[in-house]
Each structure stands twice: as C-alpha cells, then as structure tokens.
Amino acid sequence: MTGKRPLTLQKRVTITDIALDIESVYIYVPNKIAPVIFAVAFAASGAFHFWQCHHYKCFKLMVLHLLCCLMFTVGFALREYGAFHHSFNKPDLYTYIASTSLIYMAPPLLELANYHILGRILYYIPYHSPIHPGRVLTTFGLLSTLVEVLNALGISYIANPNLPESLIKLGHILMKLSLIAQILVITAFYLLAAIFHQRCYKSGIRPRTITRPLLTLYTSTFLILVRCIYRIVEHFGASTVRSSSADLASLSPILRHESFFYVFEATLMLLNAFLWNWLHPRRYLPVLSNVYLAQDGETELEGPGWEDRRPFLVTLCDPFGWFDSSKQKERPFWENNGFAQSSV
Hints:
Layout: E1 12-15, E2 18-21, H1 34-56, H2 59-84, H3 90-124, H4 133-158, H5 165-202, H6 208-238, H7 253-256, H8 258-278, E3 291-293, E4 300-302, H9 312-317
Helix pairs in contact: 1-2, 1-8, 2-3, 3-4, 3-5, 3-6, 4-5, 5-6, 6-8
C-alpha cells in the first residue's frame, strides 16, 4: 500500500520561469550538466587519493576518503541519469533513491575520517593527548555510527515518495535527529582538538607536522559543519510542507532551487576532498603510529605504542580513563625517553 506522492499535481506549474511537470521525483528542473562535472571531479580526487595512499602507504588512514569519493562519483553519475529520467516508475525511482542515499550518506563518513586523523595526531604527541588516541576513533566512531544509522533510515524514507506519508514524516524526524546529533559530535570533536592544541602551544611544541594537520582538520570539519547546518535548514523547511500542497511557489527557496544543493552540499564536499589531496596528513605524520615526537619538539622516537588493557566496552564508556584505578601504577613510556617534558 502506498501513500500520497509529495507535492503532486495533475497540471503544469512554473517555477523560476521554467515549466515543470510535477509528476517527477524532483520539484525543480534538474540540472543536466552539473552532475557530470561533480562526478568527474570526485572521480579525479578519488584517483589522486588512491595514488597518495599507495605512495604514502596509508590506505588504513585514508580509506574512508577513497570510499566517499567513490560514493559521490556513483551518486552524481546516477543523478545525471536521473536528470533525464525522473518519473515515478520503479527504475527511475530506484535510481533517485540510490543517488540521494549515496550523496547524503558520505559526509558523516568524512567526519569519521577526521576522527581517525585526529587520533593519529594524538599518537604522535601522546603526552598532551586528553584521551587515549585509539579511543578517539572508537568513541567518536560509535557516535558516528548512531548518526549514520539515523541518517540512512531517514534518507531511505524521505527519498521514496511512494511510502505512506507517516513514514516520510518519520524520515524527516530521523534526519533532523541525525543532523543535530552530528553537530553535537562535531562540537565535542572541536573541543577535544582545541584542548590538545592548547597544550601543545603552551608547552612550546609547534612544529609544522602538527599545526598543518590540525588546521586542515579544523577547516575540513568546518566545511562539514556548514553542510550540516544547510541540511538542517532544508529539512526543517521540508518537513512543514503538506504532501498535498500544490503551491510550490510558497516553498522555501532552499527547496525550490537546486543551486543551493550544489553550493552547500556538492561544492563543500568537493572542496573537502581536494583539501585532503592538497594537505595530505602523511606529508607530516610518520607511517607508524608508534613513532612519536619527543618532548623537545624536534626528535622522533619509536615507542612501544599506547595500549589500553581494559575491556573494549569499558574503554567506550570511559574513554578518558577517569575511573581506571590502575593507570597511576604504570609510568607512561614517554617519561623514560631521556627528554625533559615542558610543563603543560
């Protein structure tokens, strides 16, 4: 049993002086050139990322960037097909759902990639890390997984106009929750990175190997944050529209004009992909995570690595080690390296 199609009309209306058949999955005339440009651009960035991963031997560190470039490439390729085939028949509808899902599910994964890179930076200067470096990926990864589940469910409901109206509304609610949660996680990420950065600055450790990746992280996360705010504004506007409404001109410009999508979604995420191509973290960080910077800020040493012997679930619940009674019994390995540590 199917519900009402959103914004359906049995006549033609005019939006931005272009006649549009409302028997379409889009409420605007989809651009037929932009998807090709972005598909090619993301494919080029992904190919460059692949070469960089091979050159710098960092597939594990940057695999999410490769995956997201692939998702964007396929998503925009499908969107190009959908620009010519956007009726409500099943092949066109499935193409629209696949395209929308791939494009909208990639940014949270890029956010997760940033958490991985921050953890790698914390391994490099472990004595100033506010949290076990390995817990950055697991803790924030768990939060991102919850966000991604809400995001995926919301997209799957919203992108299918043949679902009952109640499920479409539920999809908007899930998307709102995922986007708001994403902003909260980004805020926590910024706070963690800022505490670490402040400790490094205060102790006089300011090499390019740390400042460049951190500034790149701040910029990348800001691009994702702006995109997230745009999506929140879009969804809060879309969820207030009645599916039977025929007055498309009364909709928010963000919904009626595809250009907003290409500026705040496609362009921002493409800039993020190019940003990491340009300022690749392996240009500054060592290959191995057990190589760290000594307290003099110049010498690189190979340590035993930073282990957390607590059960995995305990580390998830207590990533800062506040309730670890055994941590005071063991002296951190960096305190035995012969370098005097500056006061934090």
